[in-house]
Amino acid sequence: MTTARCGTVSGYAAHRRRGEMTCQECRDAKAAYGRARDQRAGTCQQASCGRPVRARGWCGTHLSPVRRHGTVADPVQLTAAEKFWPNVTVGPVPVFAPELGPCLLWTGAVGSRGYGKFSVRRGELWQAHRWLWVAEVGPIPGETPELDHLCRVRICVRTRHLEPVTRAENLRREHQARRAAA
Fold first, then answer.
1. Model pTM?
2. Which residues make beta-bridge pairs with 148?
3. Can you tell me whether residue 165 is helix, strand or coil?
4. 27 and 85, same structural domain?
5. What are the tens digits of pLDDT across the range 120-129?
6. Would residue 1 count as lying in a domain?
7. How far is it, in rounded angstroms, from Cα 159 to Cα 147?
8. 86 and 142 belong to one structural domain
9. Helix/strand/coil percent split, the chain, to 5
10. Rounded to whole angstroms, how far apart are CA atoms 83 and 126?
């Protein structure tokens, strides 16, 4: 390690640690080191890029998608339905209401209250049964904001097992089902 004329042993970093302005000699040394590093490393392997390599032959801009998707090309964007259906499997006929037929069970992420969670796109999280209702049936009526699971299986997403009801009716049915089970 060489001592800079400014008296610091480690140069640029020592100025930064002490909160000082960096002397011109240390700035020049840092720039020269950066240029030498870029010349040693080469340029990005992406055609017509020309930026210095950061890792594995890619510049910083192209390295991120390679790490994320394995390629620089944009990943294939799946529709919401294409993301939804691989997380659904046919389940058993519910004991509580066998006349409804078998449940369609959500096998993806489940929230703390036991309902399936479905991410349509980054930042847009839905309960799985509510998303499927809106996709297949249409908007949930405004005066009935809740969907009651007639089968009493919270991870069931089959729309035939759901009914739009008021909060009071949903609580009444839940209480009635618990009493019947006890």
1. 0.60
2. 163
3. strand
4. no
5. 988 899 999 9
6. no
7. 10
8. yes
9. 40, 15, 45
10. 13
CA distance 115 to 129: 8
| Residue 4 belongs to a domain | no
User: Burial level of 83, CB count in 10 A (0-12/13-18/19+)?
Assistant: middle
Quote the tokens at residue 98: 């066998």
**Per residue in 75-89, pLDDT tens?**
678 899 999 999 999
- β-sheet bridge partners, residue 127: 117
Q: What is the per-residue pLDDT across 6-48, written as a single tens digit (0 to 9) for each?
A: 655 555 667 677 777 777 777 777 666 665 555 556 888 888 8
H helical segments located in 102-162: 128-136
Tell the residue number behind the tokens 């499927």, with chain if given.
132
In the beta sheet, which residues pair with residue 98?
none
Does residue 92 sit in the same domain as residue 122?
yes
Q: Domain range spanning residue 49?
A: 12-69
> Which value, to the nearest 10 degrees, does the dihedral of the CA atoms of residues 159, 160, 165, 167 take?
-60
Q: Which helix (H) or strand (E) holds 24?
A: helix 24-41
Question: Distance between CA 75 and CA 56 in Å, rounded?
Answer: 20
